[in-house]
Amino acid sequence: MPKIAQTPEPPYYAVIFSSHRTEGDNGYAEMAARMIETAARQPGFLGIESAREGLGITVSYWDSLEAIHRWKNDADHKEAQRLGRGQWYCRFRVRIARVEREYGM
User: Fold this and answer.
1) What is the distance between the alpha carbons of residues 79 and 35, in angstroms, rounded to a whole number?
2) What's the CA gap between 60 and 62, in Å, rounded?
3) Average pLDDT rounded to a whole number, residues 16-22
4) For residues 40 and 78, is the Cβ–Cβ distance under 8 A?
5) Cα–Cα distance between 28 and 81 in angstroms, integer?
6) What is the pLDDT, as a whole number, of residue 2?
7) CA–CA dist 47, 94 (Å, integer)
8) Stated pTM of the model
9) For 76-99, what is each residue's pLDDT tens digit?
10) Which residues does 44 contact at the CB level (< 8 Å), separation at least 6?
11) For residue 55, which of 10, 93, 21 has the smallest C-alpha distance?
């Protein structure tokens, strides 16, 4: 079972990436794993959760909008974005939200 990210007390930010993939892997799995490792080393990264069953949803958590901006402009991430637009996704949407409250068990 995938892990649920352990995040700090709010507020913090969530980047929600929803996508529909193209057919075949075409190097996607390797790049996805590399991006998780790269993101985890970024200042301000708090955690990540991902699920894929037709519709893929990945939520990454960040301590600030500045951290999200730095991640968006990271050179390796820029290359993944280029490949995503060119060959891995037929459709995607990115949403950025401020987390004000959380609860669970």
Assistant:
1) 10
2) 7
3) 96
4) no
5) 11
6) 73
7) 17
8) 0.93
9) 999 999 999 999 999 999 999 999
10) 62, 63, 64, 66, 67, 68, 70, 71
11) 21
